[in-house]
Fold this protein.
Amino acid sequence: MKILSIETSCDETAISLVDAHGEINSPLFSILANEVFSQIDLHKEFGGVYPMIAKREHAKNLPILFKKILIDSKMYIENVKNFSDDSLWNEVKEILSKEEELYFQLKNIFNNISKPTIDAIAVTSGPGLEPALWVGISFAKALSKIFDVPLIPINHMEGHIMSTLIANENKKEIAFPAIALLISGGHTELVKISNWGKYEIIGATLDDAVGEAFDKVARMLGLPYPGGPEISKLAEEAREKNIPRFAKFTRPMINSNNLNFSFSGLKTNVLYYLRDKFNDVDLDYMNKMDIAREFEDTVVDVLASKTRKAIENINPQTLIVAGGVIANKKIRSEFLHFENEYNNLQVRIPTNMMSTDNSLMIACAAYFNISLDPELLKNTKKIEADGNLKLN
Ligand code: KG4
Ligand code: ZN
């Protein structure tokens, strides 16, 4: 089954075409084409992501990436002109009534292609920035109308969970119950997965997400957005050089009797440390490295401790750790060691490319949803963006 998937929930515009086969327990995904365009350079200027700028950029990039996907998968053939039905284009115009430029770009592309063989289109419908989600959904709706194929809405967080299944073909099947630790720019949550598609949130952050904490602390240290990779580089250098340890931060909620997290206090902890120790004095590179290392160690301790607690409560057979923050080397290696620590626990972590936002994971999640409920291919429901969409 060929699935075209679209992801625009934050600052990455991503489109891919995936051929998915096989049973739900041992699926195989062939990547026919995959494009991700990161808006990071643009958002760097502002130190964070502005939803309306993200939306504008998605609208600009979606047709470009879509055309690339068609070329890469050999579906783009010049001058075929078999999409010339005026009434169809009137309907597409209606769908893209708020995105006129997108409509013209799309019409231009379709002057040049033969009918691609696509079985379904998957699009992220939430959680995320609503204006950014909407532009992806409108684009996906237009394509679904043009190709006359079903449209499947996907929860971005379910996508992150499924990101551990692509390029992991040599791994064992996922055994249940499973636990997922989801760590991204907007989420930090522990999810119990009793079977495919059966989710229960058993712990979550009470305030900031872990990725958000990385980004905010990076900003305090004068590092560019997104802060995660920057802090990680500094922390690694501190470990390599084994510089002396001065900073010491409290591990928030590590001893609380539940599976929740809190990272805003840690951010304040860093802020006060900087204010008290460096007042008007310039923060030097050594101290930046020291702070980055201690911050990262604190995050690792808290994430690992809460995950251990969840493992002890649920006794899962699989641990999935996913979301952009799992691109962090220190956090990756900590969780990979869980396989040695717990007998019979399989640890699934996405490849680096699949860790941060992408659309392959959205195609993957769509395949699982379709396998669980083939009716999804028959009746396309009304699809709306939901910035706070929950896993259920
Ligand atoms: O999943 P993701 O790409 O987007 C959201 O759904 O939020 O996650 C983005 C987050 C950002 O906060 C970014 O700083 C963080 O992931 N991140 C990292 C690393 N790479 C990305 N955090 C720590 N270490 C990294 N190497
Ligand atoms: Zn994400």
In short: The first helix runs from residue 40 to 44. The first strand starts at residue 2 and ends at 7. Residues 10, 184-186, 211, 214-215, 226-229, 232, 323-325, 327-328, 356-357 surround KG4 (ligand 1) (CB under 6 Å). The two ends are 26 Å apart (CA to CA).
